[in-house]
Amino acid sequence: MYLIFEAFWHLSVNMGIYILFGLLAAGVLHQIISEKWVQKHLGSNTHGSIYKAALFGTPLPLCSCSVIPFAASLRRNGASKGATMSFLISTPITGIDSILATFGMFGGIFTLYRVFTSVIIAIVAGMLMNMFEPKEVNKQWVVFTSTAPESTPKIIQGTQIEAKKPFSIVAVFHYGLVTLLGSFSKPLFWGLLIGAFITAAIPSNLQELFNDNLILSYLIAVAIAVPMYVCATESLPIAASLLIAGVSPGAAFIFLSAGPATNTVTMGAVKSMLGVRALVIYLSVIAIGSIVFGASIDLLFKSFSINMSVDLYEHHGILQEGAAVLLLGLMGWHLVQERFQKKDKSCKGGSCCS
Length: 354
Fold this sequence. Notes:
Layout: H1 2-32, H2 35-40, H3 47-57, H4 67-76, H5 81-93, H6 96-106, H7 108-132, E1 140-143, E2 154-157, H8 169-201, H9 206-212, H10 214-225, H11 235-245, H12 249-261, H13 264-274, H14 276-303, H15 318-348
Helix pairs in contact: 1-6, 1-8, 1-15, 3-5, 3-7, 4-5, 5-7, 5-12, 6-7, 7-14, 8-11, 8-15, 10-12, 10-14, 11-12, 12-14, 13-14
């Protein structure tokens, strides 16, 4: 039990400062880029909208479940099926908070590779979606411009304009540390706990097994990742623990790529929004793309003699430890808040009131 708590703490120290910086960066991004602005650029049924969807989705801090209502909104406002699918894939795999945390845990080369390949996988899926689906007619919808009175609607093809809110530092902190962190505190906690358990419990000879059976390790990583609900940040401690336990960087990459992009809830949403054919394309491209790019990074690291390792127990300064304490404290506060909110709802329903 002590080994699990020790690994939990060291995972938190390794990731804490990067997650906090990432959350604040996400808050800044949320202030600068509005949902309506993103919708404006994804309404056309063209290859360009697919590229934009993949690139726009990459830094947005949305997990594989919170991206669903966003994507549904894009779809309702005229985004093509290809652009919607591209956005659904690139957005949950990465995010500004996850990108910074990946850099802290795995280094710059692995981080750039993760971002680049997530965009490629998203673009390929979007292209195939548009290729196998009939062309759609662009829709017009009623919007209000910031210069016209609210009572005067204006029809704009593929766009929607809103009054820009002033930049607020308070809003940055509130969105990053309250809204965003609150949305994934529970899965992040479980990700740290699962990662700590893997670090402490998996036998040391696992590396020999996986080194002799790389293809098996890739298939196992995909089989575990596809149905599992993990957000891009939550997946990092699990992937780091798998790497420590002996899996190759490629297998860890596969988990980081396929895990956040898919889960049973997202699969249901894809089928509902885009159809059965879209679901087949979605799962096939993610699974095949993750394996291909996972095998490629193993080959790349081997060719250039790059030794990638994660050392949880290296010495860290007071800044990293303070960030870990702050992150765990905020997560604990969110978990307690969630618990009390559920209890209040239950009491209002009469189940716990006398």
